[in-house]
Amino acid sequence: MTIRVIKGNGEKVLFEREKLKQALGSSGAGTAEQEKITSMVEARIYDGIPTKRIYQMAFDLLKKDSYKAAGRYRLKNAIMEMGPTGFPFEVFVGKIFETMGYEVETGVIVKGKCIQHEVDVIARKPGEMIMVECKFHMDSSSKSGVQVPLYIQSRYLDVKAAWEEQYGKDLRYRGGVVTNTRFSDDALQYAACAGLVLISWDYPLETGLKYWIDKTGLQPVTSLISLTKKEKQFLLEKGIVLCSQLEENKELLKEMGISDFQIRKILNEATNLMAH
Predict the structure, then answer these.
(1) DSSP state of 176
(2) DSSP for residue 45
(3) 169, 91: one domain
(4) Is the pLDDT of residue 112 over 90?
């Protein structure tokens, strides 16, 4: 029987079990576990089922076997749970650039040649400066269109002109945009032509956002299954964005009325996620 599924953008495509297995595998699920969960999901799906429902079904099954794998499996949704404001995502992106060896400032007012600009992330290395705009979406089907890199490029050129006057023309200056979803094709085409750095969930293919999270172990607190949505939001509002920040901020967990036993469980899950 042919099963068609509905993607987040409304497009109907054929169900591919290998894609589901790959998603489970990238979360840390073993080969046998991938096959077992995929077969269980296959037995339950129907023609016209939303892909979101399929992955939720797989996540629920995975959660029964492994908190660690389940937390990684739902990573994309965990990033979206950083909302409704984009500030935690800006902090998260800044931390990723720090792991690349940059000195980072977030939420900076920068004087351009013509006007001032509020810049999400400024990343510096010896001989290099990058101005980064973060585009956060709470809907996985949302894309950043060509107007985003067009707008950012014009701002970047104004900032670059001021930087050249201040620091000289020998440094390497770059502008960029990071989003938690995807860019449209014309956005990618324009950025490639203009020399603007674009990073999305899976672009560039080998160095997208997911790649850097896997490489650095920077897991957002929203990945944790042992925290409720309300508890996660409380931590985000307190500036706790990463699992690595929890150990030094256990008092905030106690402030929410979480028991010592549950706190140990939360910290253990956080450690397991980061250690993947």
Answers:
(1) E
(2) -
(3) yes
(4) yes
